[in-house]
Amino acid sequence: MPQKIEDVYGNIKQYINKTPVMTSTTLNKLTESSCFLKCENFQKMGAFKIRGAVNALLNLTKKQKDKGVITHSSGNHAQALSLAASFFNVKATIVMPENAPKVKIEATRNYGGEVIFCGNKPLDREKKTEELIKQHDYTLIHPSNNWNIIRGAGTASYELIHETRDLDYIFAPVGGGGLLSGTSLAVKELSEKTKVIGVEPENADDAFRSIRDNRIYPSTNPNTIADGLRTSLGNITFPIIRDNVHKIILVSEEEIVKAMEFLWTRMKLVVEPSGAVSLAGLLKQKESIRNKRVGAIISGGNIDLTDFFAKFKGVENNSKQ
User: Which is the catalytic residue, given 33, 74, 144, 184?
Assistant: First the structure.
């Protein structure tokens, strides 16, 4: 029998942070609604992904733990699985594309994961992962298309719903669909009147098209700043989203950047592009959410600020000359 979100939360809560729900008077005035942002950028390793990774590892057999686990990820799931594996003394091998953000590669290694690089196309990472599984008999912990990952991700909404109550909408980003699936399952268990809205970049719109046409479209050459949302729906996440999510909306690259800017300047929150997508969708739908109680999952804050600080140091050095 499937685990309830409440039971999953009870199992993982000692390993994760209970992240804050934040509000903004400016945002409420702008949308003429009551907005509640679930800030998973304050989660361990900087994103919601640790929730699912811990739940997945808790459900492994001893033999599977002894052999080790593997995944493919551009960053946040890579970090999450590496950190979660360190909690249980399990070897984690992470297949990452060569163009993954450097800050995420370094963090994955710092958490103890062994990084193996692959090509930059979505299918490259899957091919390399399959090769390594055949060689070492690792257990695959898929970034999204895994029931334990999905239910773990749903615990973010479990906390949000228990803290805010009576939400009319929850906005969540969608890439592979783990968070959106988990959000919709949590809502189904805890707050059936709440409508779940998925938000996806226009430049990586495979989930939108998949739900529209009732077939899974692969993500091919997605060109979006939201690097965590470049993956495709799977055979588990697709039907969950199809059956439980109210709709998926698309946002432009400009709208994503504006949402990031709002979070930085108005709320002093460092949020990565993928994490700001839900707010971008909320802002785009402000006419339809007027006078409503609205939640949004801010999924992560692992943005690479290396170039920014390098420029600042350059200015500082020049001022000393």
Answer: 74
- C-alpha 256/C-alpha 254 separation (Å) is 5
Active site (annotated) includes residue 292: no
- The CA distance from 291 to 243, in Å, is 27
Predicted pLDDT at 39: 98
Q: Where are the domains of the chain?
A: 5-47+151-298, 49-140
| Residue 238 in this model has a pLDDT that exceeds 80 | yes
CATH of region 5-47+151-298, choose from 1.10.1200.120, 3.40.50.1100, 1.25.40.10, 3.90.180.10: 3.40.50.1100
Q: How confident is the model over 125-143, as pLDDT tens digits?
A: 889 999 999 999 999 999 9
Q: How many degrees, rounded to 5, is the angle at CA 129 between CA 124 and CA 131?
A: 100
How high is the pLDDT of residue 314? 61
- The question of whether 274 is a catalytic residue gets the answer no
